[in-house]
Structures are given as structure tokens and as C-alpha cells.
Specification:
mainly alpha, Methane Monooxygenase Hydroxylase, Chain G, domain 1, 5 helices, about 85% helix, about 0% strand
Length: about 270
């Protein structure tokens, strides 16, 4: 094997990791978060368009796009919730991994809250459009029948006009019924999303408690270190004082011995 081929093989190999499962889950979660943010931007634009199309027939296509985007986001959030749980299983993480885990968890919770708000906005707007459409149909039914045709209308033309009106009425009713079913499905999806949201909220709360405990332990260690330093300073001062006293005693003993020796020899 040539050296060039060996260099290519080494470059293609993934770097060694102590926690390959954590790294995999973190990378997948980051990719899912990117997709989620892109879909949220699209959903916001679709909702803005839906606000301008208050007519039931005009809003049909935009509403279908909103439902499609929300279905895709719902699937992404289910995957994201599972990945976040995997990231929070292993408690033996270094500081960099803990930072990555906490960042992904909080971003997931923020995106999920944003999605929940968009779902509420869609259901509220759809109910309003449905109510307006139903009121218009009720008003049409209570009217005095089909509008009069200009000139001398034959019974065949009146019959055709009635058929057209009936078909339009059935079409509008079907649209209202479909929109109501969409709203029910979205509301069911909101319930499923709330379960994931509550799980993430619990995880974030536990992380906050862990951070508080770590900060408390650091504070206790700091205080203990200060106390130990103070005790050490006191011990050093006492040792110095004891050393000085010992020297004084030694000097006094030397003086006394000198005097005694001088008295003996003199």
C-alpha cells in the first residue's frame, strides 16, 4: 500500500470517541432541529397567507399545506423527543457533553413551544373560517330561493340553476366537514405533543436542579477551602510563635549555664 493510500484511509476514519452513542444521538438531534426550524419558518409563512384568505374555498389549498407541514413537524418532534431522552440517559458526561446535551434539550423545548403556538393559531383561524362559511350557508338556505333570471325564464333553466346551487351547497358543506376533521386531528396531535413537551419540561427542570446542586457544591467547596486556608494560617502563626518561644527558652538556658560554669571555674 502506498503512503498516499494510507493517508486517505486515515483521513476517512472517524475520530475516536469515548461516547459514540452520545455523539450519534447529539448529531442526529442537531440535524432534526435544523429540519424543524426550516419547517417552522415555512409554517409561519403559510399561516400568514391563511390570514389573508378568509374565504373557505380560497383557503383550501393553503390550509392543506399547513396541515402537511404540521404532520411533518409532528413526526420530527417525536424523533427529537426520543433522541433527547437518549442524550439524558447517560449521567457520566464531561463538561462539553453536558453543555451539548443541555443546549439541544432547551432548543427542542423552545421549538416545541413555538410549534404548539402555531397549532393553536391554525385551529383558531380554521374554526373562525368555518363559522363564517357555515353562517353564509345558513343565510343562503333561509333566503327566498334562487335569484330570478333576467327575462322570461323557462322551468328547465330554473331547474338547472337549482342543481348548480345544490352542488355548490354540497361542496361548501363538504369543505366545512373536512376542515372540522382537520381541526380534530390537529387537536389530537396537540395532545400527543403535550406529552413530549411535558417530558422535555421535566428533563429541563432536572437539569436546572443538577446545575443548582453543582453550584451549591462549588460554593460549599469554596467555603471549605477558605476555612481550611484560615486554619492553616492560624497554625503557621502559632508555629512561628512557638518557635520564637523555644528560641527564647534556649537562650535563657544558655545564659544560666554560662553563669553556672563561670561560678564553678572562678
Amino acid at each position: 500500500m502506498s503512503f498516499n493510500a494510507l493517508d486517505v484511509d486515515l483521513e476517512s476514519q472517524k475520530p475516536y470517541s469515548d461516547s459514540p452513542e452520545f455523539d450519534r444521538a447529539a448529531e442526529e438531534a442537531s440535524n432534526v432541529l435544523l429540519e424543524v426550524n426550516n419547517h417552522l419558518v415555512t409554517l409561519h409563512k403559510q399561516l400568514e397567507s391563511l390570514h389573508t384568505k378568509r374565504n373557505l374555498a380560497n383557503s383550501e389549498k393553503v390550509s392543506a399545506k399547513c396541515v402537511s407541514s404540521m404532520d411533518q413537524l409532528g413526526s420530527l418532534f417525536k424523533s427529537l423527543g426520543q433522541l433527547v431522552k437518549e442524550l439524558n440517559i447517560d449521567g457520566d458526561l464531561n463538561s462539553a457533553q453536558q453543555f451539548t446535551r443541555d443546549k439541544i434539550t432547551r432548543e427542542a423545548k423552545h421549538c416545541m413551544q413555538e410549534f404548539a403556538d402555531s397549532q393553536d393559531e391554525f385551529t383558531s383561524l380554521s374554526k373562525s373560517i368555518n363559522a363564517e362559511a357555515q353562517a353564509a350557508l345558513d343565510e343562503q338556505v333561509q333566503s327566498d330561493g334562487s335569484p330570478l333570471l333576467p327575462g322570461k325564464a323557462s322551468s328547465q333553466m330554473v331547474l338547472e340553476q337549482d342543481v348548480i346551487n345544490n352542488e355548490e351547497f354540497v361542496y361548501q358543506q363538504n369543505l366545512i366537514r373536512e376542515r372540522e376533521e382537520e381541526i380534530q386531528n390537529i387537536e389530537h396531535g396537540i395532545q400527543e405533543l403535550n406529552e413530549i413537551f411535558n417530558d422535555l419540561g421535566t428533563i429541563v427542570q432536572e437539569q436546572g436542579t443538577m446545575v443548582d446542586n453543582i453550584e451549591s457544591n462549588i460554593y460549599d467547596i469554596s467555603n471549605s477551602t477558605k476555612d481550611a486556608a484560615g486554619q492553616l494560617t492560624k497554625a503557621l502563626r502559632y508555629q512561628r510563635r512557638s518557635g520564637r518561644r523555644t528560641m527564647c527558652l534556649l537562650l535563657i538556658i544558655c545564659v544560666i549555664l554560662a553563669v553556672v560554669l563561670l561560678g564553678i571555674f572562678i
